[in-house]
Every structure is written in structure tokens, then in C-alpha cells.
User: Fold these one by one.
Assistant:
Number 1:
Amino acid sequence: MASEVCLVLNRKSANRPVVEEAVKHVQSRGIELRVRIPWDFEDSARVIEEALADGAERIIAGGGDGTVNGVANLLVGDGETRPRVVMGILPLGTANDFAHGCDLPCDNLKKCLLIACTAPAREIDVGCMNGRYFVNVASGGFGAEITATTPVGMKKALGGGAYTIMGLAKALTLKPYEGRLLVPGEEPAEGNMVFMAVGNNRLAGGGFEVAPKASLDDGMLDLAVVSDGPAADVGRLLDEMKTPENPENRFLHYRQLSEFTIESDKDLHINLDGEPILERKLEFSVLPKHLGVVF
């Protein structure tokens, strides 16, 4: 059963009526769309390999940011050669930060799936952290703790607002991380932070613009670091967010880099495209315009 377009659907979303309606909508337009529902990430690898063997030219990630990350990693592989297939997105997660950052109409799944099946692909950069690839954002510290500790029931009930509520609850207990930034050709920069984001795209944590200058095809990753102390001067932090690259900023520090390393003196919570990770040393790099994505 050969098909040029394959929808790899997150099993948790397979029985949603709106998903079935979206699939029937595009199929009614004569589009040969094959739907596959893997059991887990390991099974996703098998499903994608079979789809490629059948001649698929588009693999659509049907799920949230974690599903998009998983499909992107499987397509990129070892990163040595550019994938011959392109990736589409059917946003079915809680936050759908990558899809929102790509300006996809996430409230209209029929339109999103039609775009994924028919629109031309754009070449985007792929970020790499400790050998694992990401297309959206790697966030650390405060933001990652919010994502990792927000109860599943609250996410389902409140959507992106759940992250805000948990953030407010944790704001008074923040303890900064101590560490250093290592950039090739520069002296190590020592400091502390309560939040950091490395953005290939702009949004994370339920729609927050954590990397406002990020572009998907500039060959750079945007590093945003909020240092200890902004709770005492929220107004200034908000002002600094309007001019993130201002060298006079006290709390928000923002740089665009193609390669760098962050070292933390204690375990650092990281959220990599929706997936929680715990590390002390983070090595970042970028594969310029390496993956075709439809949006």
C-alpha cells in the first residue's frame, strides 16, 4: 500500500473525532494519506522506516511537541546527510509551541493537515544538544521545572494556562543555578541563572516568547538567560524583554551563537522540545537548513 504522505499519529490522539474528521477531509480531496499509529517511540522508528520503503515523501508528525521532536530525530538520524523526505505537523498536544511558532492555524486541524499534505516545504535549521536534535527550544531551570512538575490532569484541564499557574506557585522558591558559558574563541563567562532558553524557534512553555529574535533558517541558536534577582524588579525585566540584545540589560542576557557549551554546578532540568532531561553539561550546535518542514 504505497503512499507519498504518511501521518504518524500519537496513539493518545488516535480516537479523537476531530482527528478522524481532518483525515477524512484531506482524503476527500483525493490525497492519498496513509495513517499509522505506533505503540511507542521505538515502534515509531519501524513505522517511519516502512513508510520510507513504501515511497513516502512526507512524514506528518501527529501529536504535541514531543512527537514532533521524535519524528524529527528519526528523520535526521546521525545528522550526516540531509533527509530526502520532509516533515509536516498536525498539532495535537497541550501547548503545540513549535506549530504556533510556525504560525500554523492550530485551532483548525483540517486546515493544518491540508497544509501538511500539500504546502511546499521550507528548509529549517536543526539544533543539537548533547547529540540529540531539536527543532524548537531547549529550556532550562525554572521553565523546565514548571513543565516537568505540572500535573498531567492540570495540563489537560487548563492547557497552556497550567504552566502559568505552576510558575506563580514556584516563583517564591527559586534557587539560582551557578555555572558558566563556554564559547569557542572567548573567555569562559561565569554567572548564575534562574531560567535559560536555547531557541531554534520562538515559543516554549505554553506560548511564551522565550527567544523573540529566533529564526528557523539563520544558522544560529538564540540563547536567552535570566539571571538571579528579577523578582525584585519585574518591571525592569519586562522592559529588558523588549530589547533582549541590549548590552546594558541587568537580568536578561541574549546572544545568537552557532556553537557553545553551558556547564552547571548542579543537575539542571532541561526541557528539550517537550521532553524532560537532567544534565550538568550541555553542548549545543546547529545543522543549518538541514530539514524540510511544511508550514
Note: Residues 9 and 227 are 39 Å apart (CA to CA).
Number 2:
Amino acid sequence: MSVRAIVEVKDGDVLSALREFLRRLLETQVVDALLVPLELPSGDAVAPTLIKDPERLATANPLAPVMMANSANLVSRLTRLGNREKVGVVLRSCEMRALIELVKLQQASLDNLVTLGIDCLGTYEVTQYSRLKTELEDGAGPSTDQLKAAGEGEVVPAEGYEFRAACQICEYPMATGVDINIGLIGVDTQTMILLDMEPDIGQEVLEKLDLKEGDAPGREEAVGKLVAAREQARDQAFAAFHEKVTDTDSLIAQFSTCIACHNCTFACPICYCKECLFETDTFRHPSDRYLMWAGRKGAARMPSDTVLFQLTRMNHMVSSCVGCGMCESACPSDLPLALMFRAVGQRVQQLFDYSPGRSLEDELPVATFKEDEFPEYK
């Protein structure tokens, strides 16, 4: 049974309440360090930052609707080789689910880690967030109206803006499997923030932070309402994709503007290989080979192997794709990678009855062999 507690919000200032809660976690040594988005001195961006000094949390902003990186990658760096101190990490749902996949792939560890999930109301591209901060007097995070709408199960972007493509079709606004869930959806954030905690950490937080147990009765209904709306948007987007992409040629056409920069691999939390095959001499072909291909076919596209790269990457990680969309955010050619990988991923994941990031107990399809799997292909 989880422990639920209330963080009091004064004068509707949700961000200050969150900062104070995080500061108290450090001061009372519930955690020894915190990985949390911190506002940069430029004022137009935030970046995940590892903090040990509670005073540095004065500019922490876990509400900022932007993702500079999928923090699961950063948690991997902090824990893969072991961490002796207890580190708290503030994660969105897609980041937590990616972390679960990395733990299964032995690229991260949950030892000495306290995971704090925060309800995600959607994120903007980095350039859009920068413009939003510049244009609005209070661009630190969701407006009062947006938070009020979230309390009723509706999430809307700021007027004149739109969320990243991945967020528009994300049906996981609430992190699961975390030690502490920071609830905003279905909560009257003018007066409170809901904490939903695992029993052990929950009791420690209650005692050390002197919080009161409590609940938000409308939360389950509000989350369900938002999930239903996102699922509808997802299904419509998938249907449009499958209507457009019906064969090999139409799939290849989706990658026509790929410039083989490989940015997507660096941004993807699931692409963890220390050396990508496509970055080795295997794909740095001898000069005469290009001429041979051009002679054989009459012409040879350069750079070569763009489609092979994309399809190989898809084959390697699509069963574990959590739909964070960082690949698309990193793409200079604006390829619709978030939609493509999610649409293909849904079918692959259904084949294996696998939901990435759902549970540590679920076996990874790429690492599990079953003799009775796919008997129709034997």
C-alpha cells in the first residue's frame, strides 16, 4: 500500500513549493544529491544538474516544459559503475521507462537511487521553450490556467505554441514504478501537490519532512480522461501513418531527407552501444567501391547507407522504444521519427506482448529466446 502525502502550496506558487520539498529532501538527508532540471543563467533554458548544495535548488525548475535530454542517459552515467551515495533523480514518465529498459540492459542500476516521477503536462522543443520564456512574463512553467486545466484532466499548450510531436501522442503522463510520484494531474495545485510514495521511502519522508498524509480524490478520473484523449490522438496518428506507409518504397521515402548525421543515436536513451557499427570503418567504404556502385547502377547516392542505418537502428531498439521523441528533436532534417518509431514499435511490442518500461520483471524480447515463440514461422 502506497503512502500518500500533501505538500502545501502557498499563494498558488507551485514551483516554490516543489523547490522547498526538494530542498528538504537534501537537508534531511533523504538523499545525498539530486538530479533535477536547473534554470541556466541565460534564462531561456534549463539543463539537468546534479546538486548537493540545497541552496542551489533556488533555481531548480522541474515544471519547465522542455527536455534538453532524456535523463535516463544521465542516470546511466551516474549508476552504471556503481554509486556510493544515495541520489534522487527527478524524471518524467518516458525517462523513468527508459531507465527501466537500461537497467534490464545492464546499462544502469537502481541501487542507491531514489526515483522521483513528476506528472508531465507536455514539453516544447528547446527553441520554442526559449521563445516562450522570452515572450511571457512568467515563462517558468505551466501557467495557472494550464495547471487548473490539468487538475481537470486536460493538458493544453500555451497559446500559439504546440507540444513536441512525441508528447502529443504520449499516453503515459504519469510516471509509474517510481519511489515518489509528484502528482499535478487531478490535483488542486493552487493549494497542494500530491505525493504518492512507496511504503519505506514514504514513511521516511513523512517523518523527516513532517508532512501530513492526504489524497486527491479526483486524480484517478482526471488521469484517465487525459490518457483517453492521448490514446485517441495516438491511434489517429498511427492510422494516418499506416495509410501512408504501405510498402518498402513508401517506408524508405520517409527517410529521404536523412543526412546520416546520427544525431538520433546520440539523443536516444536506448541506443547505448559504446561504438556504433555505422561509426566504424565497416561503413567508411574504400573510394573505388563508390565508383563501382555508380558504374553498376549508373548512379550512387552519397552519403550512402542512410536507409540501412535507420532500419538497422529501428531493428535494434524498437521493442524498447519508450516514445520520448528525443530522436526527432535532435534531427536537423525534421524527420517524423517519433511517429515512425512509435507506430512500428507498437506492432513489434504487441507481437511480444511487451510494454517497454512497464516492469523490471518483464523479459526483454531482444535478450530472450523461447522455442515456442512464433510457431507460425517455423
Note: The radius of gyration is 22 Å.
Number 3:
Amino acid sequence: MSAELTRAGITDPDLQRSYLACRDLNARHGKTYFLATRLLPPEKRPYVHALYGFARYADEIVDDLASTLTPNEKRSWLEGWSRQILEDLRSGRSDDEIGRALIDTVNRWSIPIEYFEAFLHSMAMDLTVTEYRDYGALSEYVYGSAAVIGLQMVHVLGVRDGANFQATLEGAKSLGIAFQLANFIRDVGEDLDRGRVYLPLEELARFGIDRERLERRTVDGDFVEAMRYQIARVRTLQVEADKTIHYLTPESHGCIKAASELYCGIVDEVERIDYQVFDRRAKTSMLRRVAVALPAWWQMRKLWK
């Protein structure tokens, strides 16, 4: 990554170590996202790693890194880390290994701090909220956990001269939400293991499914219809987002198109395994990843300077 850091103008040794730590989190925990990031110009990649590294680390605190702690200890841990990161964002400097690259990225690209406030709010929700009555209630969570990631990316990637910036932001929000909802569909069983249900209960009820029935993890006709309903929303959001990808700078198109196809493609894989999400993990195959990424890489590299 040293060449990428040099291209990005990141020369301070401490800052370089922070960006490398973020890149490592991206590579280990977001293989599909990491692959898509490789389709960006080298000088943009470190900043995307910083944004993802921050998001991934906060999520790990909630789900994995603090798995041996009690709920109150987890909450205290996350609150303390969140408070420090927000203070660092406001002051413009950080001593945190992940925070240092994040603050540098925010400063360089003038990313609004409220995006990070919303994200950390959603991470805190995961410690207390175990289900969502309807899509409106879920929207509060997915805005902070996913939509703001898309909004942050627009600031880093940039838009074409004369493009509608607000429309680009709306498209980015839609795509971020689509990614998150696809994950919810794939991870129904894993989320139940953590005591959570992200599929809106009122929508499940339309198909005769309540939480108790969902906990039985039975894939029957009602469950399949409920999943098809959720999948349709992902595809609608993806179509909405795809209409605005061309507003981004041309050298970013390959990355976002690939991410859209691969992440939203998770629901294709759910269908392929006949909705058996409790016994199998739906994921895009390596063949599909290569088939999507290779042509995009070949096309995008011609635009990189």
C-alpha cells in the first residue's frame, strides 16, 4: 500500500500506520468491499480504507471484540470510544490508531461530522434494540449504519462538473441501504443467534410469521414469500441508486458498479440456495467476483493517471 499512500500524499509515518491498520480491517472483514476498492484510483483507496476501517472497528466492538463482556460493559466500552472519536473529529486530531486515519480523511475531504454521529448512534442501538416494528423504525438504524457510508463516499470520490450533488447523495444513500438490507436477508440466522431481528415485524406478519415462528428457523412457503418481499426492496433501491452512478467522477464508476452488483447480488445467492439461510451462508462466488471485477478494472485503469 506504500505506493497508494504516496500517491495520496500521506507521508507521516504515524498516519501511514493508521491507514495500514484500516486497510487490514477492510481486507480481513470486507473481502467484497475490499475487492471493489481495488477498482478505485490508487490515490483514493487509502481514504476509503479509513472510512471502512472506522465502521468495521465500531461494528466489531459491538459484535466480536467485546464478546466476553457483559451488555453494560459493552455499552460502556462503545460509549467511551465513540465519545473520544467524536471529540477527535471536532478537534481535528486523534491518538487512536483507527481514528488518526479517519480524522485525516474527514479533514481532507470535508466530510460532515454528523454522518459519524449517526453511525455511532446506530452502533449503540445494537446494544439495546433487538427488533424493529416496521420499516420506518428500521430506517433510523439503517440510515446511521449504512446510508451515511454512502454519503461519506460521495465526498471522497467526488462528482462530475455540473452533476446534481444532492441527487448523487440520495443515490448513495439508496445504495448503502440496499447493501445493508441484503446483509439482513442473508444473515437472518446469525442475527437470531445474537438475539436480533432486523426484518420488520409488521412485514413478516403479513406472511403469517411472528418472532416465535422465525426463531424456529423453518423455511416454508410463508418464509420464502416474506424473503421475496424483502429482496424486492433491495432491487428497487439498487435501481434507484444505479440512476445516479454516472454523476460520480468517471474513474469511480467501476468501483461503485462492481460493489452494487456484488453486494446486492447477495440476494441472488439467497435465491440460488432456495432461501436456506439458516443452514447456509449465501455469498457471491469467486468466479462471479472475478467476472465483475476484471472487466471493470481493465476499463477503469485507462482513466487512472
Note: The chain is about 70% helix and 0% strand.
